[in-house]
Structure formats: structure tokens, C-alpha cells
User: Which sequence fits this backbone?
């Protein structure tokens, strides 16, 4: 079974530029998450989707961040414009809710550097 | 909201030493508890989990027991190997598909 796929793996941009990250979850997983991991910290949730619906976006900075999950499969996270403080690793995860299973599977992440 | 407090690192041990990484949580209700591991250059991997009080999660020689009375989920391994060198994250979530709340991570280095 293929894991969660993310691209690109690395991205370097100048501040005020836009950037987008893409995620393809594990096949059949209905729940998709975007987390941000700052250096030396644990990941923090940005947004959670159940199928196409964003059910928790309370931590998403909506002035510059946007996300979409068309057709309930792939997802894109966008930042426009990027700021120096956005430098972090952006992680995508997916899960399938079954009785007794509470596991989120993470992709390798996209390391963003804003200069 | 939930919070997770993890033993500060980094931790350096000799091979075959006993490992304990402390983790305590604050959450409403009865959360599920997890340990994730991040090997150098790789993504987060689920190491073990426990979904109710007194459950013991185990995998690859690691164990952790869900202690509701002390709100703890300490990670232990009886004899560590060099290959266990990684960053370990404790995490909790309230319900099956809600967000994970992570600790800050503990970097473990095992020296031969």
C-alpha cells in the first residue's frame, strides 16, 4: 500500500512570494490533515478535512493561508504571500476511521524556507 | 484544549541501556495516546498507541502504559540499540479522527 505522498519535498522562496504544497493521501482514507512543524517543536494542526469538508480550520491563518480538497482525495495548501515566520515543515496526514483504529499516517513533509 | 508535556532532551544513552521518556497529558474526557518516532531524514511513524486506561501499547521492544490516575504515558525500552536513535513524540487525541496534540519531542541518541 502506497503511503501519503507530498510534493515538493523542499521549497525555497523569497518573502512575499506565493507557494503551494500538494498532498495525495492513502487510497480510501477519508480524513486528511495538514500540520505545520516548526524547528524543534511538535507538529500543530492547520486544517482537517472529512471528505471534501473542512471540519476544523480554527488554527489556519486565513489571511494568507488557504486549502482545498477537491473530490475528497488530493489536497493543496497555499500560502500567499509568504512571510519569514512561515519557514517550517508542512506535513500531510490521512486516516480511515474504523472501530478501534485511531491512526494517522504521515507523509514525508515539505520543508519550506522563506528568505 | 489538550496539551502534552514531554521529557526534555536531548537524551544520550549507551547501547543496551534502559530507556524511559516521560510524557504527561492534559485532556478532556478519555483521549487516545500515541508515541510517534521520526528517524533522521524520514517522516513521522506511529510507534505505538493506547486507547483506554490501563492499556499497554507495544512495538519493536518499546512499551507504554496508559495511566489515567497520573495522566501519563511514559515510553520505555529495556535495551536500546543504535538504530533507535531518533526523535520521539508523545501525542493525544480526543476522538478517533480529531487532531493530534503533540509534545515538543525528545531527541534520543544511542552510542555504541
Assistant:
Amino acid at each position: 500500500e502506497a503511503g501519503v505522498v507530498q510534493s515538493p519535498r523542499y521549497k525555497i522562496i523569497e518573502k512575499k512570494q506565493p507557494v503551494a504544497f500538494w498532498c495525495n493521501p492513502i487510497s480510501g482514507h477519508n480524513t486528511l490533515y495538514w500540520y505545520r512543524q516548526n524547528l524543534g517543536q511538535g507538529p500543530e494542526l492547520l486544517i482537517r478535512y472529512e471528505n471534501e469538508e473542512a471540519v476544523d480550520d480554527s488554527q489556519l491563518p486565513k489571511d494568507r493561508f488557504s486549502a482545498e480538497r477537491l473530490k475528497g482525495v488530493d489536497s493543496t495548501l497555499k500560502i500567499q504571500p509568504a512571510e519569514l515566520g512561515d519557514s517550517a515543515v508542512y506535513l500531510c496526514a490521512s486516516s480511515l476511521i474504523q472501530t478501534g483504529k485511531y491512526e494517522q499516517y504521515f507523509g514525508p513533509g515539505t520543508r519550506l524556507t522563506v528568505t | 484544549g489538550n496539551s502534552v508535556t514531554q521529557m526534555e532532551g536531548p537524551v544520550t544513552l549507551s547501547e543496551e541501556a534502559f530507556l524511559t521518556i516521560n510524557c504527561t497529558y492534559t485532556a478532556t474526557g478519555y483521549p487516545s495516546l500515541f508515541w510517534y518516532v521520526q528517524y533522521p531524514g524520514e517522516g513521522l511513524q506511529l510507534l505505538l498507541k493506547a486507547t483506554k486506561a490501563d492499556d499497554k501499547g507495544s512495538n519493536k521492544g518499546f512499551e507504554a502504559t496508559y495511566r489515567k490516575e497520573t495522566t501519563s504515558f511514559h515510553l520505555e525500552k529495556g535495551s536500546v540499540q543504535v538504530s533507535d536513535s531518533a526523535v520521539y513524540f508523545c501525542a493525544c487525541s480526543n476522538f478517533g479522527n480529531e487532531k493530534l496534540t503533540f509534545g515538543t519531542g525528545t531527541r534520543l541518541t544511542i552510542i555504541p
